[in-house]
Amino acid sequence: MIVSIVQFYENVWSKHKISQSVEDTEAQLVLCFAAKEILQSDTIYGIVEAKFPQAAIALCSTAGEIYHDIVQDNTLIAVAIQFSDTRVETASVNIRDFNSSFDAAEQLIRQLVPEDLAYMLVLSDGGLVNGSELVKGLHAGAGKVLVTGGLAGDAAKFKSTLVGLNQKPTEGTIVVIGFYGKKLLVAHGSKGGWDRFGLEKEVTRSVGNVLYEIDNENALALYKKYLGTDAENLPGSAFFFPLSVTIPGAEKPVVRTILSIDEANNHMKFAGDVPVGSKVRFMKANFDRLTAAAATAAQHASLPNELKPDLALLISCVGRKLVYGPRIDEEVELVSETLGKQVPLVGFYANAEISPFNNGGPCQLHNQTMTITSFYELP
């Protein structure tokens, strides 16, 4: 597995110094992460295709691009991969063609041949797709095959996102990339690092990802009460105070980011479902714990027998980027130190992340985590 990390800036391609010598015409898979405004260009897909004419090309809009150990905005970065014995197959659907995100996910996976399927990467629209239903459908279709990925971003505007496969990116697109063969090792890690506070409460009224009542009280009013003076800065401060949600039947909680506050109708909209009966606790940012969590995610994504990954794919949450502010590079720098500075890193800041818990199981929808997938192809 040979990996090259490049960026396209001011109409010029440049290669990161950590890159290996992948010939553009030999790349089999190219993943592009870019600001939405760049992907809206009518010419950008053609530019990428011209550089990598034989590759399957997936493109995804972001809330920030991870270019090895730095975080950038308003750029296009790409990783070009050449495999020795692994092959890839791709498929895509558009959510507008389905009644639900669950149905879209199942149809998406049905397009992949199941024999020798080792791993699936999913890049999804982050605005029109219900992420909770998406991961349920992915699990239903994938079975025990490892699935990781993320939902596209749009610079924390939460208006619309773009994803594409072998064509100009569009709203509503979901892409899956299947990796086949027995020589590919894939490891994953995901960790948040947020502090819980207050008593555990129960969701008593919600519809999908819209929360109305907790313990039979108006959820928005209760949320403001817990935030105290920080409530004055809503909706912006909501990113600093997500919700820990233990869904009925689940053993572990997931984190849910508040996307918007509706003052007129007294409810909150989250990045994933908050079903009735869920146990919830409020959370707040702890800078040191966020940074430590990034290192923990990298440790879980480490490979056995001290093998160094050929590539690590980082998908972190836009909420973390807002908390870190100008110190955002510290998160990816620590991941680089943990995995080894010679390991190429690439990725993006997302509206949500997809990964199993660190001890395995089905894929989950996460918010406010650093999620890492590392790859190594056996010789």
From TrEMBL:
It comes from the Bacteria. InterPro entries: FIST_C, FIST_domain_N. Residues 219-357 form the FIST C-domain domain. Keywords: Kinase, Transferase. The keyword Kinase applies. One of its GO terms (molecular function) is kinase activity. Residues 26-218 form the FIST domain. This is Histidine kinase. The lineage of its organism: Bacteria, Pseudomonadati, Bacteroidota, Cytophagia, Cytophagales.
